[in-house]
Amino acid sequence: MLETVILIVFAMIGVSLLLNLWRLLIGPSVPDRILALDTMYINTIALIILYGMSMGTSLYFEAALLIAMLGFVSTVAVCKYLLRGDIIE
Amino acid sequence: MTLLWIPLLSLLGSIISSTTGKLTRNQSTGLTLLMPVIALLMTISLAPAVFSGEVIRETISWIPLLGINIAFRLDGLALLFVFMILGIGILVIFYARYYLSSNDSMPKLYAYLMLFMTAMLGIVMSNNIIQLWFFWELTSISSFLLISYWWHKPDARKGAIMALTVTGGGGLALLAGLLLLGNIVGSYDLDVILASKEIIQGHAWYEITLILVLLGAFTKSAQFPFHFWLPHAMAAPTPVSAYLHSATMVKAGIFLLARFYPALAGTDIWFILVSLTGLSTLLFGAYVALFKHDLKGLLAYSTISHLGLITLLFGLDTKLAAVAAIFHIINHAIFKASLFMATGIIDHETGTRDMRKLNGMWRFMPYTATLAMVAAAAMAGVPLLNGFLSKEMFFAETLHQQLLGSMSWLIPVLATIAGALAVAYSARFIHDVFFNGDPIDLPKQPSEPPRYMRVPIEILVALCLVVGIFPNFIVDDVLKAASFAVLGGYVPEFEVALWHGFNLPLLMSAIAVIGGLLLYTQRRYLFQFQASLPSLNAKKTFDESIYRITKWCQRKISDSENGSLQRYLMLMFVFVLLFAGWPLFEMNQLGGQKQLTPIDVHNAMGAALLMVGTISTVIWYRARVVSLLMLSVVGLMVSVVFTRFSAPDLALTQLTVEVVTIILLMLALFFLPQHSPKESSSVRVVRDIAISAGLGIVVASICYALITRPLESISAFFLANAKTGGGGTNVVNVILVDFRGFDTLGEICVLGIAALGIYKLLVNLPLVIPASDSEGRPWAKERYPILLASISQSLLPLALMVSFYIFLRGHNLPGGGFIAGLVTAVAFILQYIAHGSSWIVARLTINYRKIIASGIAIALFTGVGSWFFGRPFMTTWFEYFDIPFIGEIELASALVFDVGVYITVVGATLMILASLGQLANEPKEEVNT
């Protein structure tokens, strides 16, 4: 049962990643692309957790944790760059 | 250990004297003298053993696998030189105290002199030829410092550069020669080389080895045609000249001839090269010396001439010639040092060294004049003085050689002519300076120098007399011991005596004296003749050739290195393509025997994302921000790939590095154009596409070929030993902090250096700050969005805790100091972004440079710590402890090492990003860098 669920969710996340990529490619504005990348990060968290579940190990948890904790920092940096240019003022 | 202490004491003396800046001149001199005096006493205590034929050796193993040891030996030859180096060195130091004016820095001169002394002692005492060469180069460098002591004078600088160029070039030839020698014999050990005469001289490389070694010796000893640097080195202070050109620097080349005499001499090519070089130098130097108006110029050419004489003696095919050469080494050192010092006094007291102005000094300084005249008479070879004895021996030996076959009689004739010239220039030195009428507008009113300034000269002149009258009294032992070493254990019967009866050498001496005096009285005609010759300006020729060589090199460099990064990359890629691609064509089949895994949807999707991300990065490379976003996709996907294929450590590292990279690029992009202009022509684009596609194909093919083949890699060893040998189950971390800890230490040092370099480059860098974004919109008003500020602030403790957790578990599970350091750094950088630098500075006064330094220090001392337990550098230790309520825990020294890694990473990352971020801030504030 769980395996089937994981497979289905895998497929869903895969589709959403591809859609993120699509948005990233067509834009049209830079904020659109930033948003796409940020969502991609979030989907990747799900992907890694799912992978850990399907393998039955917690070894990959920290990778997901790091993306969750620090992944948004790059988004922040790019946004700050667009707004103010200088990101460390 | 006594032997090692002799050069060490001298080196110590150099350090001591450089710290005497605040002391008085007498204290400074006294402290400087202390070390060489102790070294001299130690040498004297060793002398009896050496005189009895013993060779004292001391060896410390350094790089045993390369046959390189720190090895010292003291035989008769070395002993003689150590005596001269220390003895004359002590006198020169004492003399310099009175010579230097109060404007000149005394500690500086003393420190350089002592450094030079160390280098010379190292040369003469080395028992390993690579070590000998090291000290040889050290003499070149320290003599450069000494000659350019008055650095504000262009003459001194040029002279120093010339000396360094010529002797440094010779040093390179010598290194090549010594390496060949080591190769022929199979050892760099001097003992072995000196005992392998037959092997060396029978080898096909003998000629080239000999020529290279001789080039080193001849450039150092100012042999014709490499003599020209020596007169220009006279721009040095006179004590320096007295030291360098009597007993040390130029004698190093002579020492080399003597040192390798047992191994290299004895063949025709040796005799021809050495004797003819010596002969031409002897004549040339003596002739030119006669025409020099500058006192030091005269002495310089006289030195060249005497060095030629010694070289000639080494090149004569009689056994006693080498003995005569060694004897003349001693005598020349004594009288030339005293003459230089006397010249220094005259210069000091009158303000000039021009012999056309200096006349009649006898009346003003009779005492100094007497000393100088005795020394000059020794230089001329007048009986009862030491110069006479060795000159007689020299004349006698020229009569016994068979060098030029039936024309061998030419050599004694030419030797007599050179002797006459020596008498003539010595007569000029005496007569022009001390008599010959009245002085002509001297800058200063001459008088006798301070009492103690004369003491070194008195000692040396007394030695001239004692050696000249009672030759067996002092020099016999040391001469015999040195000859024993040079001739390889066999000393012919000889007797140094004042009177040998009426014989041919005596007649030659008489002819030389009378001829020389005649030459001097008739010098007007000679001077007229000399003036009619075209003048050769060594400095100009030297400058021009250096200029030409430099220009040529610059042209060649700019041809190959034009500053275009695209070009460098292109060249590198083309070569990778050639060298890595070529072997692929020689393979029959790309794929190996391994079974391919089936492609599932997830892998295919990940690969597609990677490929699209990569291609998009290239497509959008002109719009830089967009290109960066695409690059982030690649980075993210690479981390996912690392996770998928069981490399969690790499995944964690990649994720954190990704964040840091984006921040770094955003910081830099602020000052850079937002769009790359179109620069390449269509043809170039096609070429570049071809190269990069080719490279991609080659790399992909290699990867495919590699992963489809079963490979024995070293990972099995680490997997088996990580737990037992390093005490951790995370193999990656155990390799980093334990098995390859030394590499990691090197890497964090590089990281620290890079961070310092970036800081140094960025500090006070003037940059134009864009007033609006690329589309011309003004910047947003809100500097620190409140949402971001509060989130980032609450994230900090969480991030620190995670980083602590990752750090601690690193030894057994994915993590470790490097990743933890990056996590901490990102958490702090986020505070910078959210609150600005000034907010951080107000709350956190940290000096990142100190952080980096302490990180490296912790790592280093963890490694050093194992020494205290008698283990090699960086041996790790771990133990398991059972603690109540917590359970079994492991403590490992590698953990401390990892703390060092962690601290360095945090410091370096923050320093780089904070200095970059600081660039745009105006007005300049105090930053945590």
Automatic annotation (TrEMBL), chain A:
Transmembrane segments: 6-22, 34-53, 59-83
Annotated GO MF terms: sodium:proton antiporter activity
Origin superkingdom: Bacteria
Pfam families linked to this entry: MrpF_PhaF (PF04066)
Similarity annotation: Belongs to the CPA3 antiporters (TC 2.A.63) subunit F family.
Protein name as it appears in the record: K+/H+ antiporter subunit F
InterPro entries referenced in this protein's UniProt entry, alphabetically: MrpF/PhaF-like (IPR007208)
One GO cellular component, as annotated: plasma membrane
Membrane topology category: Multi-pass membrane protein
Location of this chain's protein in the cell: Cell membrane
Keyword annotations: Antiport, Cell membrane, Ion transport, Membrane, Transmembrane, Transmembrane helix, Transport
Keyword Membrane: yes
Main subcellular localisation: membrane
Automatic annotation (TrEMBL), chain B:
Stretches assigned to the Na+/H+ antiporter MnhB subunit-related protein domain: 788-910
Signal peptide positions on this chain: none
Main location class: membrane
A UniProt-annotated Pfam family: MbhD
GO cellular component terms given for this protein: plasma membrane
Superkingdom field: Bacteria
Keyword entries, A-Z: Antiport, Cell membrane, Ion transport, Membrane, Transmembrane, Transmembrane helix, Transport
GO MF annotations in UniProt: antiporter activity
Subcellular location: Cell membrane; Membrane
Domain MrpA C-terminal/MbhE span(s) in chain numbering: 684-774
Residues spanning the membrane: 28-48, 78-97, 109-126, 132-151, 163-185, 205-230, 242-263, 269-291, 322-346, 367-389, 409-431, 452-474, 497-520, 565-584, 604-621, 628-645, 651-673, 685-707, 744-763, 784-807, 813-830, 851-869, 889-914
Domain NADH-Ubiquinone oxidoreductase (complex I) chain 5 N-terminal: 66-106
This protein's name: Monovalent cation/H+ antiporter subunit A
